[in-house]
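S2.1 Query sequence (Short-chain dehydrogenase/reductase family protein)
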Amino acid sequence: MSLPTFTFLTTAEEVADVFADQIRGKNVLITGTSINGIGLEAARVLAKYANLVIITGYNSERLKLSEEAVKKEVPGANIRQLVLDLSSLTAVRKAAVEVNAYPEPLHVLINNAAAAVGEFKLTEDGLETQMATDHISPFLLTKLLAPKLLSAGSASYIPRVVNVSSDTQALGSGVNLNTVAHPDPEKYSMFDAYCQAKSANVLFAIELSKRSEGKINAYSLHPGTIFTNIMKKKETEATLIAGGVLTSDGRPNTDQMQWKTLAQGAATTVAAAFDPRLESKPGAFLWDSVEANDKIAPHNSDPETAVKLWIITEGIIGEPFTF
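Output structure tokens follow.
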């Protein structure tokens, strides 16, 4: 069967329909599945075919709304809610215990959730909020769920981890390894912190694929520029208006860049999770639903940096991530 070439305009639904056979029977966990977000759109289209879609969020009431939204579109969807607060390592551990108690294996883990861009703030663990939510907690969650992912592997199937990064991984100078474990308010800038967190997503996918030695394939991606609920948060909105991404009234600035719809924005996530053409490209970076390693900034493909970030993150969570 010849597979189509995806483009900027491709929707998540179109990708899911192409890979329906690959999605059938699979169990997927997606973090950050709130209304008007690309995580929920990915959950919705995957729920058409998947055996189980686990949706997560830190607010149980909002999670309930997300499940209702999916089931309204896909009445037969098998959705399971998981309360997960990525700003707390204790909460991540608690959620992982719950997932590991599920009877089903886990075929795909999609680290989609991200913190809002905002002023310098520490989590309960003393970590900078964006780096904690976007990288350190997903690293811990992946580590704790790795045995469940590995149990889904077979001679014909390699489990996947998908990190939703951004094109901003190429901006700035990359992750400041000195401040990952020791945040410094003097060196903090909202947008740079976001770029660093997105760089960490790319480095993590590359190093995870390498260390698993073919047992887990990890990918990172740029979903596109999408007007999601995270952009409407007050602090984030002000930053984006100042940067010209949003207009003065908080709407997408179409003069500055091309915007994707939610449906288009979730497409690359679905492709990263299920496109069989990626099996020979572990650690790849995707853009418009296709491999685009040429768009990885040099500081995010440096093997030494990837190893250092891995070791620092292991130190923060207090346990080794081995296979």
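The chain has a mean pLDDT of 95. The longest strand covers residues 52-57.
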